[in-house]
Here is the input.
Amino acid sequence: MLKVKLVRSVIGCRADHRATVRGLGLRKLQSTKVLQDTPSIRGMIETVRYLIKVEEVKS
Here is the structure.
């Protein structure tokens, strides 16, 4: 499991990066989501790594 937190604003970002953040389930600044650790989620995280903070969660 991965804990993903939006730490930078999506204002001024590319439209596809905004869509990726939305796809991760993050809406407002400082919002947090716990997601499954899958290759597709990892790819999305890699795309917008400059906007988010990620940490592993023990389940």
User: Anything to note?
Assistant: The helical segments are 15-23, 39-47. The chain has a mean pLDDT of 96.
